[in-house]
Design a protein that fits this description.
The protein has about 325 residues and is mainly alpha-helical. It is built from 15 helices and no strands. It has a single domain, classed as Ammonium transporter fold.
Length: about 325
């Protein structure tokens, strides 16, 4: 009697073969710390531009958010009885991205509370790094935007005292939506405008984003999907208004679009797995951004669009992951 017959006769189960789609061999150089280091390098142009334009306001937000994110992760991880792993730099990245998404004039406690929520509810409550459904930084920002509406709304971006020139004026998207005032494209591209401290410079976002795509830390399909959809929809709006391309450039370079497309939507934990799924995800983000900007009372929509598409990511994975060869 063969060995297999003996196993079957004894009522024992034979070996189980699991068949799954590629890739089957992962690149071991893509460690969490290496990817987070790439993101930190890519964020340098945005951080430098934010400090140049907003000066002490930017430094305050960056310090508060980074320190609060590190402290929150250490506290919540220790409460769960797990090993504290601050050296992977993920908490630092979350803190910087969160800080760059806030207005410079927001009080320190807004950034601190946003950081606690980002790490506790956005990340650790799901099980920690790699387990979260939503982008942690956007969870924290959404919370303080609801909790401190007056400190995060349009008026919060303007500084009547004019201590810093950029924050003595309305943001480009607010001015455009509310009064039809178009900010010069030069200022939009280089970043000499008001807004969240990390979203004003399209050039800085492009430099850092292209670096991430070259390093393959960010998947190019996601920003490609976001930007292609925005170009199509904003182009139609531009054509309908007879604006000669100015509406298109305003939506493309204004607000947090490029910052969100390259640094937030590309979060590998909360975005789809396959190239086709990533492009669909990006198109969804771009479509939601334009729907919110054009048809709602809110001038910006990047945060909402990314969080909504994060929720759809499991469905996109189900729709786009190929069936493995031999799978019945």
């Amino acid at each position: 009697m063969s060995k297999i017959s003996e196993i079957e006769g004894a009522g024992l189960e034979g070996p189980t073969l699991n068949v799954a789609p590629s890739p089957h061999v992962s690149d071991m150089t893509f460690t969490t710390k290496r990817m987070m280091t790439d993101v930190l390098i890519a964020l340098v142009p945005l951080v430098a531009m934010s400090v140049f334009v907003f000066r002490g306001y930017a430094v305050k937000q960056l310090v508060v958010c980074v320190v609060a994110c590190l402290a929150s992760e250490a506290l919540f991880v220790s409460m769960r009885g797990k090993k504290i792993t601050l050296t992977d730099c993920s908490a630092v990245v979350t803190g910087i991205i969160l800080a760059l998404s806030l207005p410079g004039t927001a009080p320190w406690y807004v950034g601190a509370l946003a950081s606690v929520v980002a790490m506790g509810i956005g990340k650790i409550i799901f099980g920690g790094l790699g387990m979260n459904i939503f982008n942690p930084a956007m969870v924290g920002r959404a919370f303080v935007m609801i909790a401190f509406a007056s400190l995060m709304g349009a008026g919060a971006y303007e500084n009547p005292a004019g201590v810093v020139d950029a924050i003595s004026q309305a943001t480009p998207l607010n001015a455009f939506k509310g009064s039809g005032i178009a900010t010069p494209v030069f200022d939009l591209f280089f970043g000499f405008t008001n807004g969240s401290i990390g979203e004003t410079s399209a050039l800085a976002a492009l430099i850092g984003g292209i670096f991430l795509c070259i390093r393959r830390t960010a998947s190019w399909e996601i920003p490609a999907g976001v930007l292609s959809c925005v170009v199509v929809l904003a182009g139609l709006a531009d054509f309908a208004a007879g604006a000669g391309g100015h509406v298109l450039l305003h939506h493309l370079f204004g607000g947090a679009l490029l910052f969100g497309a390259f640094f937030i939507a590309t979060d590998p934990v909360t975005s789809p797995l396959t190239p086709r799924g990533k492009f669909i995800f990006g198109v969804g983000v771009g479509a939601l951004v334009m729907i919110i900007r054009l048809f709602s009372g809110y001038p910006e929509g990047v945060m909402f669009a990314i969080l909504l598409m994060n929720a759809v990511t499991p469905l996109i994975n189900r729709w786009t992951i190929p069936h493995p060869m031999g799978d019945a």
